[in-house]
Amino acid sequence: MRALLSVYDKDGLVEFAQGLVDLGWDLLASGNTSAALGDAGIAHRAVSEVTGAPEILGGRVKTLHPAIHGGILADRSVPEHLADLERQGIEPIDLVVCNLYPFRSDPSVELIDIGGPTMVRAAAKNFAHVGVVVSPADYAGVLDELRGHGSLSDETRRRLARGAFAHTAAYDAAIVRWLDDGELLAPTIHLTLERAEVLRYGENPHQHGARYRVAGETTWWDGMVKHSGSALSYLNLFDTDAAWRLVHELASDAGRPAVAIIKHANPCGAAVGLDLVEAYRLALDCDPLSAFGGVVAVGGVIDDPLAEAIAAGPQADVIVAAAVEPDALARLVARRKSTRILSAPPPEPAPTQVRSIGGSVLIQEGDRLLAPRADWTVVTKVAPTEDQWRDLVLAWRVCARTTSNAVVVVTSGQASGIGAGQQSRVGAAEIAVAKAGDRAKGGAGASDAFFPFPDGLEVLARAGVAAVIHPGGSVGDATVIEAADASGIALVATGERHFRH
């Protein structure tokens, strides 16, 4: 039995090669792999001895030779193939061990591997007769099977071939993305996703679900630590991601401690405060009924006083924070055994969004709030006070992260009323002021898109909202501004819409 070894990643190479030698295998190796085996005193033949041709072009050509690829690709069930091998003096190769240049880590023309993918694909194509190993993680299992059975099973060779084709597909996809040079809407998009975890189910128990990530890349989820509670579900992940991103945006905007509470991907509470305990209580006070079974995101560390406040509040499905102190964790676990308590690194910037619509896919940039406050325009006779400006910034941020049509009311750093996901902007405004009640008086309102008519603005005015922010830009802006002036409301236009579906 013969194995061909040609690897960039030398982890575990010597031990694996020695294991093959101990089983009576003959080894071939190329380039630096041959040097590594030689340094370890492991008997092998260099590829150049088999091909009769030296490596050329600085190593670009070394395994691209009939003596190598004939040995890999020969179908041992076809007599003509065996006759060709005999006429050419080519010996079959039974195992190819190859991993590729690390293109993702340092993309360049020189790290575009040619011989490696060619060998890997050849071996994978001929998996009926040849095994192919592309990851050091498979070394131990392959050796165990060879020791126990003398050869690899059909099932194992097929599994390894599948992994090999996935490996080269991901490699080619990385090269294409590099050549696209950051173009978002390239003519073709090649995403290779690797399964990070299998979930209990999808949105509903009858749906299967899993979390995938782009191969070779990590997200904040991969740095998350789950300290206690039940397994995370599909909806837990979806809602927690929304909560974790929002709370970091709020804290960054305000420069103050922030807490966000999310239910079904929409904020049902958000606030900034002098400390995290105050921020939590204000966030919860927005809509304590909806907060039951939601996600609590804490923009900082959960200490014992905050844990006491959260434990006394409604049941949360998930609590996520930058860290959880030991005493605080013990308190939360004692009160909420099934609640998933997580600590996590900050989220990465809003990623490219990929969403399916039946058999098609929509791709867009992640939404960011682009227009700074300096570019916002006061379009009414009355301008916001400094306190109102702070509330307008918070309202605008929360509104941008709420499902459209969305209207949000904020009072003194607290989201006091949130109207989400309504077909009518007037309906969203009515829900927001109904939830805010008397807290709307003197507060700030936000709409994710412009008010096309005065009616939505007038709902906020009747509730006592004193300042409102919206994108502006409607053909009806003049009548909306007139209504704001008539009500004594300060109206601010951002010039930037934030629909969210």
What this model shows, in words?
The chain is α/β, with parallel strands linked by helices and 501 residues long. The protein folds into three domains: 2-180, 3-Layer(aba) Sandwich (Rossmann fold), CATH 3.40.50.1380; 221-343, Cytidine Deaminase, domain 2; 374-493, Cytidine Deaminase, domain 2, CATH 3.40.140.20. 39% of the residues lie in helices and 20% in strands. It is built from 17 helices and 23 strands. The chain has helices at residues 13-22, 31-39, 47-51, 66-73, 79-88, 115-125, 139-149, 154-180, 234-254, 276-286, 288-291, 304-312, 326-335, 386-400, 425-436, 454-462, 477-487, and strands spanning 2-7, 26-29, 45-46, 95-99, 131-133, 193-198, 210-214, 225-228, 258-263, 266-272, 294-298, 301-302, 316-321, 323-324, 340-343, 353-357, 360-364, 377-378, 407-411, 414-419, 444-447, 467-470, 490-493. Strands 8-15-13-11-9-10 form a six-stranded mixed β-sheet, sandwiched between helices. A hairpin with a 2-residue loop joins strand 16 and strand 17 (360-364). Helix 10 runs parallel beside helix 12 (304-312) and helix 15 runs parallel beside helix 16. The two termini are 58 Å apart.
